[in-house]
Write a structure and sequence with these properties.
With 108 residues, the chain is α+β, with helices and mostly antiparallel strands. It has five helices and five strands; from the N terminus they run H-H-E-E-E-E-H-H-E-H. The chain starts with a helix and ends in a 9-residue tail after the last helix.
């Protein structure tokens, strides 16, 4: 299957651009390490308006997830917590930040 992370993070970038309050809710930087196929995305919501860009950087939290599971999350079929509990998502760093990422659900 083709990588879905690009489209998902493009949608996330649009949501961040339209909703400056997200930075106030999250207050941190999240590194996404995508597997199968490999990709890296940096979600910077430390300060408004926030940004989404491809690549890596200094982050408070790193989420490692397969492209397919990211798509499941973005469609709202499973929450990040569900995926984490099933061992399908790994969270390193500040767990509280991961708990504030509900806006990733129903992105696409």
């Amino acid at each position: 299957a083709a990588a879905q992370s690009g489209a998902i993070f493009k949608a996330l970038g649009e949501r961040v651009a339209k909703s400056s309050s997200l930075a106030g809710e999250v207050r941190g930087v999240v590194q996404f390490t995508i597997k199968d196929p490999e990709a890296s995305w940096l979600l910077d919501l430390k300060a408004a308006p926030g940004s989404v860009k491809e690549g890596t950087g200094a982050a408070d939290t790193t989420i490692t997830i397969r492209d397919e599971d990211l798509a499941t999350l973005a469609k709202g079929e499973e929450s990040l917590r569900d995926l984490f509990q099933k061992g399908k998502a790994r969270v390193d760093g500040d767990m509280r930040l991961a708990a504030r990422l509900g806006f990733l659900e129903k992105l696409v």
